[in-house]
Amino acid sequence: MAEHIRTELRTGAPDAELLESLRRLAAASQAVDGAPPFSEQTLVELGKDRRDAGAAPLTIACAWSNENLVGAAAVVHEHTDDGGEQTLTELTVDPQHRRRGVGTQLASELESAVLSPEADASHRAWAHGGHPGGPKLADAFRWGPVRELWRMRLDNDVPLPAVELDESVTLRRFRPGTDEQAWLRANAKAFIDHPEQGQLTMEDLQARMAEDWFDPEGFFLAWSAADGDGADGDGADPQLLGFHWTKMPAPEEPDAEQLGEVYAVGVLPAAQGRRLGTSLTLAGIEYLRAQGADATILYVDASNASAAALYKKLGFRVWDIDIQYAPLTDPDAAQA
Predict the structure, then answer these.
(1) 206-222 burial string, b = 16+ CB within 10 Å, else e?
(2) For the chain, percent helix, then strand, then coil, each to nearest 5?
(3) Is the pLDDT of residue 227 over 70?
(4) What is the pLDDT of residues 61-81, one digit of tens each?
(5) Strand ranges across the sheet with 295-301
(6) Are residues 144 and 195 in the same domain?
């Protein structure tokens, strides 16, 4: 007898039981695919209190075999600066239930509801790690690639140049309870054109600080103030010039590599041209190696030629690729 797969749509926050099932499903997919099926921001949104003003609306498509979650898609709904709406979708199927049409069922469920071509919204979807099912599913629903995100890797046997900072720059670690607002302002300026990083809110920052992997000692801030306290003596606003936030979560499996991550490197426009980006990157990599990382990874947009060139010069190589898709009928897709 053929296995019966039941699909359903849910809106709003998942309850604790569904959230745990989503996390188990994501872990099972990552163990086989080598890349997480849901981005960190999507996981943050799934865990948010939807009553909070900063929480984006959510739609979750679930595929069930009996009482087991065998596939899911998360759709985050957001408002654009021009007053429109955009959605970002990520989908995965349990490795033991693939090639049975589960992904197609989930995509069909979403297309008939929130991802309808007639909907007044801009739709995007991620396929992480270059999974071969991504282009097949996209082609079946007439979506095409519009963006590439590279995951790059630097092995520990690659030598690094020395960190060189201008004498007017002081490097110190992030101080929880003190530096949040200054960092949020600097992050927004450094990533003003970035569709995800530049939109982080205080709640997003606090959610990441609550994670087990958060380590303020691996969060480097470059200040112009000589004493490194982030403020001039006259009480002016903090002179934060740039930052490097590193990340080193525990491996998913006991025998897996311990990977450190160049999580976010940002330099404010006014501080460009002082090699701060290179120095901050090197300081973070040195810290990750000292903490026992087997290798260092990072994510960079393929279209960001200057950043990609910097990382390649330091010895990073492209490891795998995330691809973002959009409906071929979307007039903005060609501009993405």
Answers:
(1) ebbeeeeebbeebbbbb
(2) 30, 30, 40
(3) no
(4) 999 999 999 999 999 988 776
(5) 6-11, 58-65, 68-79, 85-93, 122-127, 317-327, 143-155, 295-301, 259-267, 240-247, 219-223, 170-173
(6) no
Domain that holds residue 108: 6-148+323-335
Quick: pLDDT tens for 142-166: 999 999 999 999 999 999 999 888 8
Tokens 């359903």, located at residue: 8
Residues 209 and 298 grouped into a single domain: yes
Measure the CA–CA gap between 20 and 144, rounded to whole angstroms: 32
Assessment of whether the complete model's pTM goes beyond 0.85: no
Task: Quote the distance between the C-alpha of residue 242 and its chain's center.
Answer: 20
In a domain, 154, yes or no: no
Give counts: helices (H), strands (E), the chain: 8, 12
Task: Quote the distance between the C-alpha of residue 141 and its chain's center.
Answer: 25
Q: Find the Cα–Cα–Cα–Cα dihedral 132, 136, 141, 143, rounded to 10°.
A: 60
Q: Which residues contact 202 (CB under 8 A, 6 or more apart)?
A: 54, 180, 181, 184
The CATH number of residue 263's host domain is 3.40.630.30
The separation between CA 20 and the C-alpha centre of its own chain, rounded to angstroms, equals 20
CA gyration radius for the chain?
21
Residues 169 and 256 reside in one and the same domain: yes
The number of folded domains in the chain is 2
- Distance between CA 34 and CA 254 in Å, rounded? 15
Helix (H, G, I), strand (E, B) or coil at 199: helix
Q: 185, 259, 273, 258: which is closest to 221 by C-alpha?
A: 185
